[in-house]
Design goal:
Blueprint (H helix, E strand, L loop, with lengths): L2 H12 L6 H35 L2 H50 L2 H4 L4 H8 L1 H34 L1 H48 L1 H6 L3 H53 L5 H42 L30 E8 L8 E8 L4 E5 L6 H8 L7 E6 L2 E2 L5 H6 L1 E4 L10 H5 L8 H10 L3 H6 L17 H15 L3 E5 L7 H15 L3 E5 L11 E6 L2 E6 L1 H7 L2 H18 L1
Parallel strand pairs: 3-8, 3-9, 6-7, 7-8
Antiparallel strand pairs: 1-2, 1-4, 4-5, 9-10
Helix pairs in contact: 1-10, 2-3, 2-6, 2-10, 3-6, 5-6, 5-7, 6-7, 6-10, 7-9, 7-10, 9-10, 14-16, 16-17
Length: about 600
Amino acid sequence: MSFKQALLDYKQLMKFMRPRRRLYYTGLIGDSLVNSGLSILIAFVIKDLLNFAVSGQLEDLYAAITIVIGSVVGLCILSPIFSYLYLRSIRLTLADMRMQLYKHIGKITFCAAEKYHSGDLLSRMTSDVQVVEKTYHEHLRSIVSQITMVAGSIIVLCVVDWRFALVLVVLALLTIGINARFSPRMRAIGDKLQAQMGILTERVGDLIGGLQITKLFGLRDQIGKLCEEASEEVSESGLKQGHQSGVLEACNFAVQFFSMGGILAIGLFLVSRQQLELGTLGLILYLQIGISSTFLQVGAAITLMQNSFAGAARIHQLLDQPAEPEGDRATAGLEAEPVCQEASGNVPALELCNVTFGYEPGRPVLRCLSMSATEGKVTAVVGPSGGGKSTIMKLLLSFYERESGVIHIQGKALEHYRIKELRELIAYVPQEAFLFHDSIAGNIRLGRPDASDEEVENAARMAQAHAFITELPDGYATMVGERGSTLSGGQRQRIAIARALLKNAPILLLDEATSALDAESEHEVQLALQELMRGRTTLIIAHRLSTIEQADCICVVADGSLVEQGTHEELLEKGGVYSKLHDLQYHAEQVLVSV
């Protein structure tokens, strides 16, 4: 790793500390000066005590006692102040870093979020933040303290005996060269180790999240093997890092060992020739030992800092992901795009005109799709799997940006809405309702956070959920567990419907909201959906055609295009794609009934 690259890595690491850098550096440098100054003063204490032992002069003893008392007083006063300054800046910076990550994850585009496994995101917010904290709190402190110690020791030695100072300067440069040579390998291992930690977190997350499936299909060994393999990769990289660190430490130790032996031999020779005081030799040896341990600690700190550089890079990579625009997203000339009108002359509540979109370049999911939904009516979207039905929902919610074509909502181009404004117009009920680990009332109130308890209860009544909620031990205060694990699928879905009712948005999107339910639960949810759809523009993605027979309009989408459109009876008479899908489902249901 070049010095330029190391400097760039350091700057990237310290970006988080920028608002408090003065506070941090004041505390860090002040603390380092106090501690290194104390170590250097102890060398003078040793010098005076050795001279007192040889000469018996009380002045040397008094000087040693004075230095000790002064050092202790200074340490007691200054060290707590400087420690508080840099520790405060670290705690506040880490809190800001975690909050910045949390907020940005909520803001990044849906497309960018899908690139990451939830476990990897969690690893960036925990493991990567922790290694950055280590550098702020320990490694930088160690490096600055040791550099201060070396600089102070060399200055003292220049005053005491310039020959020994010159030797220590040469040894210091040699040690710096050795550490610089090992740095690129340590950074490469650090990058790999942090990435593998992310993968391990992913595997463990999958194991915990899919525990029910793991037990049901007897996958403990298979899933456990994936976790074991990820853990072994982390261990292997950790061992490589430990090996490189050990070799580096051995090289540093060898240099310092031979230097100490040489200085001791030369010093004793000079003392025997009365060219050097024994106390001065003791001071030189103490400072040399301090410098030796300094470079050993610096080598270890530099090694561990590579993990922090890698962690900071992963955090910045996530923070650099594009966020959803908060303002008007309109582009020049978009106002001139036509708004198609129905035969009655009314502007459709939802409209897609020649929309093309693909998740991957060159592989379109929607191909020049044009369709519309009338205000206040129920429009269903059906078709073969993979035809693009759910993709329509994602585009309407602005989770993805289309490649071409125009989307209008209530006569206004999609890009002319702010993201927040757009989603306030839409209530969305997915196939599997997601509930937070909160109370039932808390999950319903997500539809409108300022809703009163009475409004929450009314929404639950309309969603056919009030009866089962009141039977729970804590009623609306009942905690639903992770993802609503303590409730049945039908109960979760009705709470999601109550949430949508409370939101009271004019447009409703239903993405196969009953396809995963049993017959009894489906009946209860259908009653709730009827209440929810009343008076709203509703777009339904349906798998079971029997659930959308009463829809005002049915759009059949296949291979990304609209192939048929009409009522249930009209489409059956045409004998096209819809009719074939209806016949297949009807015969399949008859077979199940006969069985």
